[in-house]
Amino acid sequence: MIKHIEETVEYLRDKGFESPEVGIILGTGLGQLIDDVDIIKQVSYNHIPNFPTATVEFHKGKLIYGKLSGKKVIVMQGRFHLYEGYSLQDVTYPVRIMEKLGIKTLLVSNAAGAINLNFKKSELMLIDDHINLQGKSPLAFRGVELLGERFTDMSAPYDAEINSQFESIAKQNNITLHKGVYVSVLGPQLETRAEYRMLKLIGADAVGMSTVPEVIVANHLKLKVAAVSVLTDECDPDNLEPINIEDIIANAAKAEPNMITLFKELIRTL
């Protein structure tokens, strides 16, 4: 993996990806932040050596380098998921690349279902902690100690100072920003009523199929990390309705401007 990382980093540096400060991973349906980036360079995932091979869903996936709120950023326009058949090393490979290129902070967004029924559709949740139910770890491979501490501390995976700044920005902009625990499951099927009840019992406030692997690796690399969930549906097991993808996309679109405000204003303060 070390050789692959070196090859990928060299390719991107040759393309002009120089000294980024912040990495951003955009979740499903959350791509409008790109409109606010002053793009300097962009490369399709398919053209980047050793990058995961894009699936049909992400054939337009791009790694974008530019300026946002006065800072140099790298933005992943489209992420990889375990449910697409990738390995955890594939899913988290871009985080390792962004760190080698120079980022010190990683900001993550995702679309999630609200298990805490005090949280409503199209609101945002700041992730304060997480539960990994994907069944694996992105650090469980031979030679991981050559890339960072094998037994990575996860007592505080999300940066408290950045989270505090997010909360302050939300208050200043009259944005509803809940704080809670995100649980990551494998997917791609949605949860049953019994599963939603179980997730609530173990302390989850929102559920999704991403983010946790990237956050684990970011901690492995000692990056500052923060993550925000866009709540796209309400997971009430007593009144559960069949999934409506169009409704989920509409709810994500409604919440996205608030997420963009949070990210832009936070980056300005870094």
UniProtKB/TrEMBL annotation:
One of its GO terms (cellular component) is cytoplasm. Gene3D superfamilies: Nucleoside phosphorylase domain. Keywords: Glycosyltransferase, Transferase. Its EC number is 2.4.2.1. It comes from the Bacteria. The keyword Glycosyltransferase applies. Belongs to the PNP/MTAP phosphorylase family. PANTHER family: METHYLTHIOADENOSINE/PURINE NUCLEOSIDE PHOSPHORYLASE (PTHR11904), PURINE NUCLEOSIDE PHOSPHORYLASE-RELATED (PTHR11904:SF9). This is Purine nucleoside phosphorylase. It comes from Seonamhaeicola maritimus. The lineage of its organism: Bacteria, Pseudomonadati, Bacteroidota, Flavobacteriia, Flavobacteriales.
